[in-house]
Amino acid sequence: AICPAGGGLGRRRGAGGLAVVVVRNVLERRAELAILRAVGFSRAAVGRMLVWEYAPLVLLGTGLGAGSGVAAVLPALASPGADVPYVSLGLTVLAVAAAGLLGTAGGAVLALRGDVLDGLRAE
Fold this sequence. Notes:
Layout: H1 8-28, H2 30-38, H3 43-78, H4 86-111, H5 116-122
Helix pairs in contact: 1-4, 2-5, 3-4
């Protein structure tokens, strides 16, 4: 049988790595985001915009990872009597996508904590 429990550490590290990438990107774009805040966008609106910006990357990465995983175990799946826990595997893929989106949201929240004036002064 294929073990659906594996990859927990990888999920956590991937979500954490994505959060770091988001924070770094947002810090590089601080002046741009400060201008959005100055013209009336709320912190929550800017955060949602950042999550929607990264969501396609998270979903594409999850899909490509799941596809390559299926390709790697395809010979085992094709063997007679293969016991595949489809529900567990599907839930695992959903958990990976959710962890990526939560990592993105967490990174955006961390990066948007600063003051608007600091970002505008840099501009």
